[in-house]
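**User:** Everyone, produce a chain:

**Assistant:**
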Amino acid sequence: MIEPRELLGLLSILFLLVALSTQAAEPQQPSEQEDSEDKLVKQTQNPVADLISVPFQNNYNFAAGPKHNHMIYNLNIQPVIPIHITENWNLIARIIIVHVRDRIESGPKPDLVRALGAAYHAGTVGSVGFEPEITIECTGVAQLVGDSIQAVGAGGIVCLTGVGSGGFAGGRAAGDVAAAAVLKNNVVVGSVNANKRHWYKAGEALARADRSWLAHLITRREKPENFAQALERKPDDIKAIIQFVD
């Protein structure tokens, strides 16, 4: 066994050898070194630079789980490898995987989501098994809003498009939800898509969509005299409409 004094002596000798070898090495020209460092700094800040990078993102989430008494550690490896097409063109692919969460566990809605190539989840926001980078919350339900802010990954974005009222953020105080967003450097933004150009863009997107897929979004058609039935929620409903003509 090495005594503490012997270990300290060995470390001192090692440090001295490293210092001597550093001084003996031929120094690089200051101008070339500075230019190289400046170029590297600019490349690391440019998302489309001709540079292979493999960033590691470590995320620690405290107060996780149903009882908020667990810690979750996630290591995200996010390699960026440009593919050279020509001398002036690089191809950099950033894959976006869409996940949809709803309370419905079966029926036409999960099937329609999977038909688009997206993943469907019927559990809680925190049970999807990963930390999303971007969350679009459409319900406005206080608990789901709070859960979405808590579940998004570090540096993530939560976009709120639903309008709700009252309720608590999943049993947590608003200050706790805000603290979680601040500590993870998240962005929470609200958006109201009510402008004329929004409807125009939506119409263009629907016109390009698969008509057979869109037809399955309408699960019930009611006559005008039966409008009250159209307002009644049924288990397999997605969209119920009032049809004035046959």
In short: Residues 20-28 have pLDDT under 50 and may be disordered.
